[in-house]
Here is the input.
Amino acid sequence: MTRTIDPNTTMAELLKEYPAAQRALFRAYHIGGCANCGFSPNETLASVCARNDSLPVDEVVATIFAAQDADQQTQISPGEVAERLRSGEQVPLIDVRSREEWDAVHIDSATFFTQELMQEIMSEWPKDREIIFVCHHGVRSLDAASYFAGHGFQRVRSMTGGIDAWSLEVESDLPRYHLG
Here is the structure.
């Protein structure tokens, strides 16, 4: 199946269909990470490329597809995480949500991500150690996995759907919540 992205697709539509595009555009081209290099939701991919050194749209599209594929490889299902933990595997499950979210509900075997833990991971953990990140819906955990992969960690994962999916698929008595 050949995938395509219309150059006239708005950035809002693009990011909805390809969530990895935000990280990919910033990592590859420094687009979209701050006020100076940002874009508006209604701006088209073609116009973003044009005003960023006339980037070739087909190259940017290929970068987005590669990032989307990489994100898929990074994902791990709640069921697989649960099975591995039940079998006694000592894989770290790192919760990157806010303190308030953690205090409200968390997976018993997870560890709350702190600045101290980040420093420990970066300076002491082997780069080939598997780490599974979890958040509310699987977006922040994917960002965390991408961050650590960018710092040389080779086996980082993000739990698909986050703790919300965990409560639906694994631990139904774990309360679900919605952020306002």
In short: The mean pLDDT is 92. The CA atoms of residues 136 and 163 lie 5 Å apart. The longest strand covers residues 131-134. The radius of gyration is 18 Å.
